[in-house]
Amino acid sequence: MGVTGEENSRTVYDVAVIGGGFAGALLAAVLARGGVRTLLLEREPAPRFAVGESMVPYTAALARLVARRYRVPEVEHLSSLRAVQREISPNCGVLRNMGFVHHRAHLPQHPGEIYQVVNPSIVPPVPHLYRQDIDAHLLGVARRYGATVRTGPDARLDGLRIDADTGVTLRTGKGEESARYVVDAGGPQAPVSRELQLREEPTRARHHSRTLFTHMTGVTPYDETPAGRLHDQPSPWHQGTLHHVFDGGWLWVIPFDNQPRSANSRCSVGLTLDPRKHPASDLSPQEEFDGFLARFPDVARQFTHAEPARPWTSTGRLQYSSKRVVGDRYCLASHAAGFVDPLYSRGLAHSLEVVNALGRRLIDAAHDGDWSTTRFQYVEDLQQSLFDAHDDLTYASFVSFRDFELFNAVVRTWTVSTVLGALAVENACAAYGRSGDDSVFRDLEDTRHPGSPFPGSAHFNALGPLTRTLCEEVEAGTRTPGSAAERIFDAIREADYLPPSLGLADPADRFFHNTPARIARAARWVRTDAPDEVGALLKGAMGGLIRERLRGVRRPG
């Protein structure tokens, strides 16, 4: 069993986790539940402000996977709004859609230049996570399962030494600690990365962005603004994460007050900019935000009565990457390994993917004493692949923001990946529910495309690089946006793994909304035309979701 918080500093821990944010606290809970002696160090006492708040269906599916595989049911609470409200916090909002509204500076917003992905009705509503409550909850979960959790001055890390043969020594505010392995989940200032000089200089990321963000009160739902009233999207914008996109950047609007049981009047707001088009200046973040609103009057009407509820945070370039993330007795996890951009809400999903891959290996190592670097090679490959894939997509998206026709194509590549990713994870969860055999999760890693939602398809795994290459040509001026968009749509039409009824290859179909009629047509396609691998994936995933939905309906309360 794991150690308790009362054990003294002479304890030799199996794993020391640096950083008590989402990834670090989640990993500590998984390890402690698996009988690993775990020390978690977080110098900032909870609760603490954090962004990364959208729990899309793919992320919710990953939360269910981690909860069931590692027997930490508290993690599954994150996958549904109802469970979050009941078990964790009344301060979370609801995410029923991911919406995108395209803008041109100083011009009225064109009502036809919108795109929306609506969560299928078979998936329970997922939450917008009020992170300070969620992260504090996960720290408590880790502590209850037996991890030693230290916060504040006692958790200050003054130095560390890593020995490939014996393990890790950490100098903390409480004294010297020893562990057999260290996981750095400390974000961009990762001390292991700094100590071992693991950052790539310069980063290999193609994408460039900086951001300023805060929580605000008094934000008007976009549906209630003059421009928003002209839209014909199937789900209200305010019922999800809204992206206002424009040449050189995007603005996120993530409300926590958009469901009747919420006790939170705040809204997460962040402006992310390409500094090559929108250079930083001496303006304060509020002044820069006000200047942005002056250029985009149809966005500004959302913020007529808005006020910051906390100080703005402003960053330099967001992108950083690592030469390697796994080595002798250490691993950089999640945002300690690298970061691209908050676009498409990939941060929480990346954290869950890494915890899932790393947790089993650390538990096995603690039990058999084999901490060899080769055991963790998949975690290296996974994190580097996740970084590169998200960099490709985000780079292409920023190029496409200049032209709605191109953006309308590029955003479909994200839609394909998030839908297939959710289906693959739900299929694995359904198989695990039938067999209880952990090999279904290990089988997901047996691929030459780590982190890919559909690793067996050469066509799918070429779609992201193709989209990036076409957008590189647009940026270089050797291809028009229209030509690039047409080629992306052609590639989607060629995909034999997508039901045609979903409309992803139709530029005029701007809403990914699985109505009953569309689902029925997709079901017929699965029975008659789908390749075997796709048919098995869809049947397993949908069957599992239906059983989950029925179980939720029957559950009292």
Summarize the structure.
The protein is α/β, with parallel strands linked by helices.
Provide structural commentary.
The protein has 16 helices and 19 strands. The chain has helices at residues 22-33, 57-69, 73-76, 81-87, 131-144, 191-196, 285-295, 297-300, 347-368, 377-400, 404-435, 439-443, 458-476, 481-493, 516-528, 532-554; strands spanning 12-18, 38-42, 93-95, 97-102, 114-118, 126-128, 148-151, 157-163, 167-172, 175-184, 210-217, 241-246, 249-255, 267-273, 307-308, 313-314, 326-327, 330-332, 511-512. A hairpin with a 2-residue loop joins strand 9 (167-172) and strand 10. Helix 1 packs parallel to helix 5. The longest helix is centred in the last third of the chain and has 32 residues, at 404-435. Residues 1-9 and 553-557 have low confidence and may be disordered.
